[in-house]
Specification:
This protein is an alpha+beta fold and 118 residues long. Helix content is 40%, strand content 12%. The protein is flat, with a radius of gyration of 17 Å.
């Protein structure tokens, strides 16, 4: 396991956790206008947005918001091709996946289960 600094952890939290909080908020309102949601879900989305903003503000304050590599040289993100996918028109392609890398060098891909057709 690679050694890394507390600042590296902040970089990772800013990139990975902030992105995940945004996805959760999007899943809650799924394209609906936020003010059309029940009050409890509006409050949940607001709280998720506040958490994401707090992480981002701290990262910016400490100069960790735009790092491309951690202090140990590990890149903060990577791209790779996923499994072949066929779209509704019958076109098959290899989708490119962009994911964050933990400062230890571990690639952690978070996926969201879905029942929707591609």
């Amino acid at each position: 396991m690679q050694e890394y600094t507390p600042q590296d952890s902040l970089v990772y939290l800013n990139r990975s956790v902030s992105s995940q909080l945004e996805v959760v908020a999007d899943l809650i309102y799924e394209g609906e206008e936020i003010d059309t949601l029940p009050e409890n879900l509006q409050n949940a989305v607001s709280l998720l947005d506040s958490l994401r903003n707090e992480i981002r503000n701290e990262a910016e304050h400490h100069g960790a918001a735009r790092a491309a590599h951690y202090s140990n040289g590990v890149p903060t993100s990577t791209r790779f091709n996923d499994v072949p996918t066929t779209d509704p028109d019958g076109e098959t392609y290899m989708p490119e996946v962009h994911t964050d890398v933990h400062p230890s060098g571990n690639v952690r891909v978070f996926s969201i289960p879905t029942n929707k057709e591609v």
